[in-house]
Each structure stands twice: as C-alpha cells, then as structure tokens.
Amino acid sequence: MPIDSISLKGSTRTITEFFEYSINSILYQRGIYPPEDFSRVKKYDLTLLKTHDDELKDYIRRILIQVHKWLLGGKCNKLVLCIINKDEGDTVERWSFDVTHYKSENSSEQSNEEPESIDSEVTKNQIRALIRQITASMTFLPELANEGNYTFNVLAYTDAYAKVPLDWADSDSKEVENAEVVQFKSFSTNDHKVGLQVSYRF
Amino acid sequence: MSVSGGSSPFLETPLEATSDKGIHLEDSPVRVGKNNHVDTIEAKDRQIISLEYKLNTLQNEFELERLQTQRQCNTLDKQYRSAVDELEKALDDTKFLHESNSKLQEELSVVKDQLNSTELEKDKIINGLQFKIRAIEQELSDSRLNQDSERSKLTNEVETCKIENENSQALLAKYEEELQKQSSELKNLIKSNNEKDIEISELKTTKIVNSHPNYSTEDLQELATMNRMFQDQMKYVKELEEANIKQANELKRLRNLNDSSQFWKSENEKLQSKLQDLEILENNIQELQVENIDLKSKLTSMNIFDDQNDKPENIINDWQLTKKENLILTDENSKLKLSVNNLKLLNEELAMERNQLLDLNKNYESSLINLKKLNHELDQQRLLSFEECKLLRKQLDDVNEVVTSDNEGRTKEMQSHKELETLIDDYKNKTDDLTNELKHINEQLLNSQKEQQNQLTKKRKTNDYNGLSYYSQRMNELQLENVELKRNLQKYQNLNKLLEEKTKKLISLKEKKIRILQLRDNPLANDQFIKKKQITLLQNENKDLMEQIKDSASDVRTVPFSVYESLSFELKQQENEIFKVNKKSVRLKEMFNKKSLEFIDVVNSILGFRLEFQQDNKVKIYSCFKPDKFLVVDLVKNTLVSNLNLHNWDELLKLWIEERGQIPCFLATVTLQLWEQLNSEKNVELTSI
C-alpha cells in the first residue's frame, strides 16, 4: 500500500465529505435552495458551493455523521437524494450514490472486486471528475418548473441489522415513475467504490 | 355353397342380397311374359347395372379389405418378428444368466472347498504351533525351576555371607578393642620400662657414686628378682608383639572379608534387581500362560492336529496369506452374490419381458386366426359371386332367346348384352385371378411363416453360440451405461450442491433485507406536516362554519375557535415566511456588502482612490497615497472640495475641470503629484537618517 493511500476511516471520511459537497452542489444547481444560501469554497481544486443556512447545514451534518458511522461499520451501501415536488409529493429526481465495500466482514455478499491500493491523488481526481459531471448534468436534466416549489429528502440504504438511532425512521424508496436513468462516473478508495446515477422524470 | 356363420358382417348381407335378387330375377321373367319384352329388357338392364354396381362395390370392398388385411398382416408379421426376436434374446439372456449363475455357483462351491482345505491346513498349522508352544512352555517351566533353585542358592549364599559379615564385623570390633587394650598395656609397659630404665640409670649412677660397691645379699637378691621380672616382662612384651602381629594379620583378613562382604552385598543388590526382573518375567510368563491357555482352548475347539513340523515363520506367513486370500475370496463371494442378485433381478425382468412377449405372440396368433377367418369369408364371398355370375348368365341366355325371337331391330341392345356378358366374363376372370392371388398370398404367408420359423430356429442356434459374446457385450454396455449414469449422478449431485448453496445464499440475501432510512426531521416531512396541519385546521374550520351556518338562528355573531386556530397557524406560517424573507434579504445585503466591498477594494487598488458614499449625495474620495486626506464631491451642488493641500490645486482644477472637463485626468494628476510628494518625503527622511 503506498504511503498516500487512504485507510478505512480516511476512506469513509472522504466519502462523507464527497456526499456533503455533492448534496450541496445538487441543491444549488437544481435550485432547491436559493443561491444566496450558498457560498463558494475551494475543494478538490474546484470552486464549489456550500450552504451557510444553519438549518440545512445542520440537517446535512446530522445525516452525514450517521452515514459516516454506518459506512465505518460497512452497514450503508446507498445514499439517495430525492428531489420532491411539494405540491404533488412526487419524486422528480433521484440522485443515487451507490457505495461498494471492498473489504467487509460479510465478504460473501459484498463485492468480490479486489482493488489495488489507490493513491489519494487518484481518488481526488476521480471525485473532481464526478463533481464536474454533476455540474455538467444540469445541461441535460429537465428544468424544474416553479423554482422554490421543491424540497428534498435524503435516504440511506442500510443493512437490516444496522443500529438505527431514534431520529431515523423507515421510508419508502421514493422511486421516480417512468424515469430516465443516467449513470455517472465513479471514484474508488482503498476500501470503497462510490458510483452515482441520476434518475429523472423524462 | 356352404353358409357358415362367420363373425364377418360381409357374410350375411351378400347372401341376403343374392337371395332377394335371386328370387326377384327368377320371378321377373314369369311376371314379364312375352307381351312386354321392352319392359323386361329395361328391367334386366337395370338389374345388370345394379349388379355391375354391386360387383364394382364388392370388388372395391374386396380390394380395400385385401389391402387392409395385407397391411395388418405386414404389421402383425413385423410385430411378431420383433417380438420373437426379443423373446429369443430374452431367452438367450436367461439361458446365459442361468449358465453363468450355475458357473458362479460351481465356482463358489470350488472356492468354498478351497476355503475348507485352507481352513484345515490352517488348523494343522495351529496344532503344530500349539505343540511347539507346549514344548516351549515345558522349557520355560524347567528354566524357571532352575532359576528358582539358583535364586534360592544365591539367597542362601547371600544370607550366609551376611551372617559371616556380621560375625566378622563383631570379631573386628573385639579385636579392635583387644588391640586398643594391648596398645594401652604396651604403652603402660613402655612407661614402666622407661621408669625401670630410669631406675637402672639411677642405680648405675648410685653405683658409680658409691664406687665401691658394697653389695649386700639383700640387694643382690632384689637385683636378681628385678632381672627376672625384666626378663618376664620382655617375654610378655614379645608375646604381646606376636599377638599384635597375629591380630594385624587377622585384621587384614577381616578387612579382606569386609571387602568380599561388600562385593557380596553389591552382588546381592544386583541379584535382587534381577529378582525383580524375574518377577516381571514371571508376570509375562503368566500372561503367556493365559495366552497359551487361550490357544489351547482354541486348539481344543478345533480338534484337529497335525504333525507337520514347519517353521513357525513359514506357518505364520502361510496363515497371513491364507487370511488375505480368505478376505479376497469373501470379497469376491460378496461381489458374486451381488452379481447373482443383479442377475436374478435381470432374470426376473427378462421373465417379465418374456411373459409380455408371449402375450404379444398370443395376440398375434389370435389376430392371425382372425385374418384366416376373414380370408375364409372372402373365399365364401367369392364363391357367392361365382354363383351370382352363373345365375346372371342364365338370365342373360333367357333374355337373348326372347330378344332374338322378338326383335331384330334391337341388335344394339344385344350388343350391349354381349358387352355385359364380356363384362361378367371379365368379372369372373378377375374373381378367379383374385382367388388365385389370394391362394398365392396364403401360400406365401405360410411359406414366410415357415421361413421365419426356420430363421428363428437358426437364430436360436446362432444365439446359443453367440450368447456369451452377446451377454458380455450387453454387460459391457450396461457397465458403460452404469458408469455414465454414475457420472451423471455425480454431476447432478454437484449441481444440486451448487444449487443448494445458491439457494442458501439467496435465502440469506433475502433474509438480509435492506432498510431505507430517513431522518424524521427532514425538509419534506416538515413541509408535509405543515400542509397536513393546515388541511386539518381548514377542515375543522369548514366543519365548524358549516355547523354555524346550520345553527344560524342565533343572532349573536360568533367565530368558531377553529377559525382562530387556522388563522393563527396561517399567521405563524406568514411569520415564518417573513422570517425567511428577512433572512434572505439579510443574506442579500450581506452579499451586496461583500460585493461592494470587493468592488471598492478593486477600485482602490486599480485607480488609487477609495470611494465613500455619504448620505447627503456626497462622495468622499481618499487617495491611497494620503489616506488621511480626502476630496469631497457634492453631486447635488456640483462642487469639489479638498484638504490635500496641493500647491497647484487651483491650476489643476482650472486646467482639467474647467477647461478640459476631464475629472479622471484631474484625479490622475492629483494621484501622481501625491505619489511624488510621498516619494520626496521618504527620500528626505532617508537622507536625514
């Protein structure tokens, strides 16, 4: 393993960090929250937008803390950001972050892929490419009419036996009906592989 | 014509038909008479046509039947042949199986005989071994007795040695004591001797002193006694010395005896250890005796003795070999038994097949009989048709006679009659041909049956010859099939295992369900909660208002509480909206300020002036080279005031603003002058330092 490769803890941290920035980016790009709620930050050698709305920040932070714990335990394998029409209650867009655990206690059901040790710089480049793809996806994604009439929800796909805190509850999958699916790039760490796909109402 | 009642439906109908027609035909010439020839001819024509038609139909039916019977015959023949073949095969198999079974049984009996002979040989060997064991036992008992006697001797010797040792030790002690006593006496004597020497010397000195010895008789007597005493003492000393020497010798002897006793002691210890070993050996002997007893008991049970004096090693080897052979033979026997069982099963199966084939054969024979019956019926029909033909001919002859006598103009009809006659002849010929053919076919059938039987007998013979090869071939095939089936079984078992594993995995996967979780306090839930609350409040309000409308009799104007609640909720929502809007405006302001600051910074850094917008439409302009001084531009009064204290301020103002109207240029020159001023001040400071 090279010196710059990431340990499991580091890997999960990288992933949760990526989740934070990608969720912020999507919320900004799709206009779920007004642009003035976001401020520019430098990350992954990119200028990204991050919310400074305390309520939203707290919400994302709470999610990511728990997701980080689940990821460390290998209990979470998917994080989904749903964009929902407030009036209709329909899911119009569904951003699904698939997490594959390379090494886990229950290796039988996990991925059999045995990755080579990945340099942190490579991971960073992959993340950068993915975030660029997210930004670029706004060109083909349908415009969300009635801006401000949408809200979002984050769903975590966990193991059935994962420890669930009281502030978390079960939910339906909130699938998009008659959806068009676009698969994005992925990035890998030593312990995980994160892929992204967006399904949207065509 | 014999009318035998067959099972065929064809038997009765033609007869009836012919009988009816016969009666009719016989009656018709009587009824017609000579007066009405035309009618009779027409009737005959009709009859001829009908007969022709019947003939045709009969021919067709006959052809069809013939074809069907041929087909049935062929199929039955094929079936019969195949069944006979199979039966033959089965019979051959069973024969061969019986033969192999008998052979195997013979082999088994031979093997059993061999086993018995080997067992007898084995028993003989065992007897020889038992004899040897007895001899060895006797030798062992003798040696044990010898050993016991030697042991007793040795123990006695040891005991005597011990006693001698003890006596010698006691003697040694006595001698030592005596030695000590004698040495002490010797010491005393030496002391007394010395004393006497001293006395002698004293006496000598007294003698010398006296010079003149005036010895009295008393003194002489004393001296003589003294001399005697000395002599006695000398003797005694000598005796003592001798005794001492003797004692020393005795001591030496006793020491030697002590050494020997120690040696005997060690010997005794060794012997005792040997004795212990002997005890162990005794135990072993006892065990051997037990074994020997067992062997004896076995021997007695066998009751067969033999005086063969082979070497025990050879016997053991032979015995082991026979044991191995026995094992092999038992294995073979079990295998043979299995094969016999299998063959029995096969035989049973073949018997079943044979029974089935016999049934088939019976069926075939019965079908053959039926066919023969059919054939017979067809013959009968043929004969009937012959009879019909004869009758028709007679009728025709009658008609011809009538016609020739009556009418010549009806030659055409005659021609037709002739034609009919030829037709009937043809029919007759055909029926003859058919009967011949039938006969020929029957003969052929019989011949073919005979040939088949011959072939079958030949086949049987050849099968008898080739039975072994056939059976072996079949066995090989069955073995190959068995191997293939085993492989398939293994394959399917493996597949089954894999599938089971997969199903287990799938079950475990199914069991390991995924949970989809969301934070209870999420934006969507909050939004939905607000909406739901709003809806319930509005519903309540609606309900209350409706009730109020219904009870509108009361004059008092009241509003339901639910209206208040909904309104207050709406108010709260509005407040929240306001809060959000405020938040948004604050953020926008912040953004604006940030941006304006950025702008001011940019302007300051690029143009060298910092602008400060004041409330009364005035703009303060600070130069970066003199931040404490400023220019004030009044946009309302259109004035420009400064506290920069430039020496050529008025000139610059006049030139750039009044004359040329270029404020930026004016500011640029001011900036330049201020920079020069600052530089010169710095230089002055440096020079002063």
TrEMBL record, chain A:
Protein localization: Nucleus
A single Gene Ontology CC term: nucleoplasm
One GO-annotated biological process of the protein: positive regulation of protein autoubiquitination
Keywords from the UniProt entry: Cell cycle, Cell division, Mitosis, Nucleus
Primary location recorded for the protein, binned into one broad class: nucleus
Pfam families: HORMA
InterPro entries linked to this entry: HORMA_dom, HORMA_dom_sf, Mad2-like
HORMA domain boundaries: 9-198
PANTHER family: MITOTIC SPINDLE ASSEMBLY CHECKPOINT PROTEIN MAD2 (PTHR11842), MITOTIC SPINDLE ASSEMBLY CHECKPOINT PROTEIN MAD2A (PTHR11842:SF11)
Family statement drawn from the similarity comment of this UniProt entry: Belongs to the MAD2 family.
Record-given protein name: HORMA domain-containing protein
TrEMBL record, chain B:
GO cellular component: kinetochore; mitotic spindle; nuclear envelope
Main location: nucleus
Key words, A-Z: Cell cycle, Cell division, Coiled coil, Mitosis, Nucleus
Coiled-coil parts of chain: 41-121, 158-196, 237-298, 336-381, 417-591
Source organism superkingdom: Eukaryota
GO biological process terms, semicolon-separated: activation of mitotic cell cycle spindle assembly checkpoint; attachment of mitotic spindle microtubules to kinetochore; cell division; mitotic DNA integrity checkpoint signaling; mitotic spindle assembly checkpoint signaling; negative regulation of protein import into nucleus during spindle assembly checkpoint; nucleocytoplasmic transport
Compartments, record wording: Nucleus
Transmembrane feature ranges: none
Gene3D superfamilies hit by this protein: 3.30.457.60
Family as reported in the entry's similarity comment: Belongs to the MAD1 family.
This protein's name: Spindle assembly checkpoint component MAD1
